[in-house]
């Protein structure tokens, strides 16, 4: 039954994405939240927002920066504050999910190409005028216990637009203890991950909203500073 619900809900995203094309910004955000909350409910994943929650649920535009554990991170964040994501170009080729990402305005990037980074930055600066943009500066996902070094290039969008940065720390728990059951790592395929998560129950994701940071440093200092803020929060809560 759970499998059928997942399939039907994923298929439902097709007409919803077409509806997004003719909807206002507020309507688009409601549609995105509706679908993401529905998917989380089917997977039996609850979301708890802690910290400076008001910064995440208000209508202000930020460069949101989060640690990266799973494709599910995107669903979690979109269920609270719909925004534009920056994702690896590989995501565009994912069955259906890649199409959905394109339809919802995702900015795709090849991080090893300078020209691609410059194009992504231009798009990010345009989008930040109207929407929050979220990045995962580690560049890939981990099991959630540690952080990889933050890549600094995309932080330039905050400096150029003078939009504040909103750091977010994500943690997944099961029975009040850390779990890596949602982690999307190594050579795992999207289907493998969906099947693995489907088999679990009562997973909770804690979305810790941290202090707003004004872009008063250069991009490398900014990336390093925010990485340390998220790392400290992670280490305090996983110890």
Question: What is the total tally of β strands?
Answer: 8
The major beta sheet can be summarized as: 8 strands, mixed
Total individual domains = 1
**Mean of residue pLDDT values:** 91
How would you classify the helix and strand content by structural class? alpha/beta
Topology of this structure?
Layout: H1 2-20, H2 25-42, E1 45-51, H3 53-57, E2 63-66, H4 72-80, E3 84-88, H5 97-103, E4 107-109, H6 114-127, E5 133-135, H7 156-161, E6 165-174, E7 177-178, H8 190-198, E8 203-209, H9 219-238
Parallel strand pairs: 1-8, 2-5, 2-6, 3-4, 3-5
Antiparallel strand pairs: 6-7, 6-8
Helix pairs in contact: 1-2, 2-4
Report on the architecture of this protein.
The chain has 239 residues and is an alpha/beta fold. It has one domain (2-238): Glycerol-3-phosphate (1)-acyltransferase (3-Layer(aba) Sandwich), CATH 3.40.1130. 45% of the residues lie in helices and 17% in strands. It contains nine helices and eight strands. Strands 1, 2, 3, 4, 5, 6, 7 and 8 form an eight-stranded mixed β-sheet that branches. The model has no long low-confidence stretch (mean pLDDT 91).
Main features:
globular, alpha/beta, 239 residues, 8-stranded mixed β-sheet, Glycerol-3-phosphate (1)-acyltransferase, 9 helices
Summarize this structure briefly.
With 239 residues, the chain is an alpha/beta fold. The protein has helices at 2-20, 25-42, 53-57, 72-80, 97-103, 114-127, 156-161, 190-198, 219-238, and strands at 45-51, 63-66, 84-88, 107-109, 133-135, 165-174, 177-178, 203-209.
